[in-house]
Design goal:
Strand order of the largest sheet: 1-2
Strand content: 5-15%
Distance between the termini: 53 Å
Number of helices: 6
Order of helices and strands: EEHHHEEHHH
Structural class: alpha+beta
Low-confidence stretches: 1-8
Oligomer: single chain
Helix content: 40-55%
């Protein structure tokens, strides 16, 4: 991990020609989702209450925040980390990410990959699995009909 804690690493090429990037540089402005959000989000924000609120509910305050973070994700002008090879001192810039799960495809894929790795290394036993099902236990039936039963009264 680099000094900024971004997870980016650099390693020297065997021929000493500088660092090998361990990540692929992204071009977020080229994606259709980025262009759609950049071009149409403010319009959606203006007409949402009139056109969509009756069917889909009130506009949540977190929505503009997530959209703004997404538009800044992967863009050097909005922040970067300098990744430097300790051995040869070559360096490159790595754009910061928004870390907005579910909305930003790049950040969500990274989080999903990290979660999968954690799941494999920590939670699932090291035996062959054909299928893994994660469930949430249900409350006892009496606690739904009798509120006092759930409190131990």
């Amino acid at each position: 991990m680099d000094a900024m804690g971004t997870g980016a690493t650099a390693a020297c090429r065997p021929d000493g020609a500088g660092p090998v990037r361990m990540d692929k540089p992204r071009r977020p402005q080229a994606s259709p989702l980025f262009r759609l959000v950049a071009d149409q989000f403010r319009t959606l924000q203006l007409v949402y209450d009139e056109r969509f609120a009756p069917a889909y509910g009130a506009w949540r305050a977190v929505v503009p925040e997530v959209a703004d973070k997404f538009l800044a994700c992967g863009v050097l002008e909005h922040g970067f980390a300098r990744v430097r090879c300790d051995a040869c001192a070559h360096e490159y810039l790595l754009a910061l990410s928004c870390k907005a799960r579910y909305f930003c495809p790049s950040c969500h894929a990274k989080r999903l990959a990290l979660w999968t790795l954690w799941l494999e290394e920590t939670l699932v036993a090291p035996v062959p699995h054909g299928q893994v099902v994660l469930t949430i236990p249900k409350r006892p039936p009496q606690s739904r009909t009798d509120p006092a039963a759930g409190r131990g009264a």
